[in-house]
Amino acid sequence: MAATARLKDRPAKALVVRYECRDGAQRMWISPIVRPKTGGVALGDALEMGETAEGQFACLF
């Protein structure tokens, strides 16, 4: 089964946490939401992004 076919059946979801300070410092964490076969909900390992978000839609969230 192709990975794209799997994503159509069960789309991936994630928790995104972002902060921005007045001094311009920014940090963002993206954690996948995991639903184990045994039941329940958990967060996977977070991906930390420390780069400055720039561009037309950078401050959309």
Strand and helix map with partners:
Elements lengths: L2 H7 L4 E7 L5 E9 L7 E2 L3 E3 L12
Antiparallel strand pairs: 1-2, 2-3, 2-4
**Mind telling me the C-alpha Rg?**
15 Å
Elements, N to C (H/E) = HEEEE
Q: Please bin the fraction of helical residues.
A: 10-25%
- Spans of at least 5 consecutive residues whose pLDDT stays below 50 are none
Shape descriptor reads elongated
Strand content: 25-35%
Q: Sheet with the most strands? A: 4 strands, antiparallel
Helix segment count?
1
Oligomer description: single chain
**How many beta-strand segments?**
4
* Structural class label: mainly beta
Distance between the termini: 34 Å
Mean pLDDT across every amino acid position: 76
Walkthrough of the structure:
- By secondary structure, this protein is mainly beta.
- The chain has a domain at 12-49.
- The model has no long low-confidence stretch (mean pLDDT 76).
- The protein is built from one helix and four strands; from the N terminus they run H-E-E-E-E.
